[in-house]
Structure prediction request, 323 residues.
Amino acid sequence: TYDAVAIGEFLIDFTPGGISPAGNPLFERNAGGAPVNVLAALARLSKRTAFIGKVGNDPFGHFLQDTLRQEGIDDKGLVFTDHAHTTMAFVHLGEGGERSFHFCRQPGADEGLAFEEIDPSLLGSAKVFHFGSVSMTSEPSRGATLSAVREAKARGAWITFDPNWRPALWQDNQHAKKAMEEGLEEADVVKVSEEELFFLTGRSELEAGAEELLERFPVKLLLVTLGAEGSYYRTRKIGGRAASYPVVPVDTTAAGDGFMGAFIGTMLENGRPAWEWADGELRKALAYANAGGALATTRLGAIASLASHEEIEELVKGAPVTE
Ligand code: ATP
Prediction:
């Protein structure tokens, strides 16, 4: 059995890597994909994890398999294909340092995952089953993702969902919203940014957006990440905020995944589903998750930036950011 299984995109992120001796911009090869980042965060907290996804039978796909193995994430659900290349995304830095993503995915191997290719043993043996919406941008991976989530749920897994909105990957906003809504119908715990909450509900006010989302979907616990401000939580009964901890950010990549991994970790430690917790327990779990997110901003990269339990505990012992 596994503590957590995740399904979704797994790709190569080429991030700006300086200038070559010939004066040309260099790109650095990095493993990318939010679901694997969440599993890596959990693996660093000594949880047993496994990944379900598809990559090309090419050097990049083999590098991604090595990455799973190095992180201690079970790779038996990783499918290789000869019919598409491992998906790639190039990250370009704008004038002000803002990042834009250019995806090479026409289609990429990740989109080709079919439900029949998924090892059924991974759907019946997870305490937590995690997914996002990037794997729902096209078929057959959209159907595979939703069927896998439904199967895991029917077999008793707690379902966690991070919509992770990447506008460039969708035909249009309506297309994105429709798929995310299908995800929201299945999820127990949902994590969004304020921007995503606004996208999904049309409400710019946090409380109103949270209320609307819980009213329209059977979601049991909503988590909203607020960057340096920490995070917000809301169940059908209670809600509140938890402050984050002071850090010096150098790269915010995977902060949200570090947050989500740490939160899922506390739920696994506790053993009871988080939507049944008392206010104090939820606040404590959010503080821990905030520290996990905060630490991920203090180091370069995605997986490489994720924190250990000891580091998180150490940060939580200190004073939070004052409001
Ligand atoms: P993504 O990684 O896709 O941008 P996200 O928008 O969910 O995801 P953030 O809100 O930036 O991520 O960060 C997640 C969590 O990490 C926050 O809720 C917060 O707890 C912590 N965090 C992020 N940035 C900082 C910061 N500058 N100082 C302290 N904590 C931070």
In short: Residues 2-9+34-87+109-317 form a domain with the UDP-N-acetylmuramoyl-L-alanine:D-glutamate ligase fold (CATH 3.40.1190.20).
